[in-house]
Design a protein that fits this description.
Layout: H1 2-7, E1 13-19, H2 26-37, H3 41-44, E2 50-56, H4 63-73, E3 77-82, H5 88-98, E4 103-106, H6 118-125, E5 132-137, H7 145-162, E6 170-177, H8 178-186, H9 194-200, E7 205-210, H10 224-238, H11 241-264, H12 276-299, H13 302-305, E8 314-316
Parallel strand pairs: 1-2, 1-4, 2-3, 5-7
Antiparallel strand pairs: 3-8, 4-6, 5-6
């Protein structure tokens, strides 16, 4: 089976779908994605082929067996299984590495990023000078309050720390040319955060606004600790060392100024009712924040950041 695929014509489109504990959604989402692929004239009315590459991210449920059942129904499906859970970004990278298409679409398995936009993504990039068409969420009503607001704050902070004009509210739902995919994979980053790496590499990118849907089943696998880990890794990995030093100094200056004003400066009067014990508590908080920010922006260089990375081997099941 694998040898037959390798000798088959190069697909026009590869769809890469990371999946972690998604047994409850694959039966609905994969046929829908294939249905939307067949809305593209070049796929439906010609000899151009496509492939759907499911990357099972070390799932603990029946994701693999469900994907295998689907592969028996749809010969265009391929399945890669990671031997252990490596995270969404690593799964996506492995999918891109193994995708054979001239164009590569990535999206999640839960249908929150509606596959109905697949034809529009393809039309936006085919015959153009764009190497990437990036979907951008018009609204985030389907997200939780915490995720919606933390995402906006993180994009704001990241743009100012990194100095790169990243696209706010960009999803990992996009289409890439094979050339753009190769540029991304050649980047010297073991764990690639694609929504930041693409603008850093200055890959020509167009935008497609979309409305996001609710998950059709299950719960989000992306929790607060995952967002914090992504934020830490992204800032450490993509911020130049001199930039971290200068911002660390600025943070110390701001915290020191605020503390001085509260204790003895012109801001003292509004705080006269605050006890000395309260002031000592706030000073402790400021000192702790300073230490944390110092470690984040200065102490954590690329060697320390490697500890945040997780490698994973994988096998092609079908």
């Amino acid at each position: 089976m694998r040898e037959a695929r390798e000798s088959a014509p190069t697909p026009l489109i590869s769809v890469v779908i990371p999946a972690y504990n998604e047994e409850g959604v694959l039966r609905q989402s994969i046929p829908k994605i294939i249905e939307c692929l067949l809305m593209i004239d070049e796929v439906r009315y010609s000899q151009c082929t496509y492939e759907v590459l499911i990357v099972n991210d070390g799932s603990a449920d029946k994701t693999e067996s469900e994907a295998l059942n689907l592969a028996r129904e749809f010969r265009e499906i391929r399945l890669l299984t990671l031997t252990k859970n490596a995270g969404h970004m690593r799964s996506l990278e492995i999918g891109l590495l193994n995708a054979r298409g001239n164009y590569i679409i990535s999206l999640d398995a839960d249908l929150q990023d509606p596959p109905e936009y697949i034809p529009a993504l393809f039309r936006s990039i085919q015959g153009s000078d764009w190497e990437c068409v990036q979907t951008v969420r018009i609204d985030r009503k389907s997200d939780t309050f915490l995720k919606r607001n933390s995402a906006g704050f993180f994009y704001w902070v990241f743009r100012r720390i990194i100095g790169i004009d990243i696209i706010p509210h960009a999803a990992d739902y996009r289409i890439l040319t094979a050339a753009a995919r190769d540029k991304i994979l050649q980047a010297n980053d073991k764990d690639k955060v694609f929504r930041f790496l693409i603008p850093i590499l200055r890959i020509p990118t167009n935008i497609l606004p979309i409305h996001r849907s609710k998950r059709i089943s299950g719960v989000s696998k992306y929790h607060l600790k995952d967002m914090a880990k992504l934020a830490t890794y992204s800032i450490v990995n993509y911020t130049p060392i001199l930039s971290r030093v200068s911002r660390c100094a600025l943070i110390f200056a701001i915290l020191g100024t605020v503390t001085t004003l509260i204790i003895s400066g012109p801001m003292q009067s509004p705080f006269e009712k605050i006890s000395q014990d309260d002031i000592r508590v706030w000073l402790t908080i400021f000192s702790s924040l300073s230490a944390i920010l110092s470690l984040l922006f200065f102490g954590l260089d690329r060697q320390v950041a490697k500890k945040l990375r997780l490698d994973s081997s994988y096998v092609e099941v079908v």
